[in-house]
Amino acid sequence: MDETEQTPAQKPAAEDGGALVSAAKAIGKAAGKVASLASGDSKKKPALKQKGNVYQAEYLGSGTFRISKPKRQKTKRRQSALKNPQRGARKF
Predict the structure, then answer these.
(1) First CA to last CA across the chain, in angstroms?
(2) CB within 8 A of 85, min separation 6: which ones?
């Protein structure tokens, strides 16, 4: 049997899947239109505000970059140290 031929038992399953997929696409398309109309301006995307402490890379020339990254919070550093003790430390 070729890949193009389908048995009678396989045809209804393929058609049901196709109908469900097309119905889901139609519903999604309608929901997207409603959401874009509700937002007011569908053509313009709002500008994202960047936080002051984000990763930054500054090109210095000839393949050299200065990379700055935000500092880790004290609470996160403490939790990381508690969960991951230093290698070779005594266990209690």
Answers:
(1) 68
(2) 91
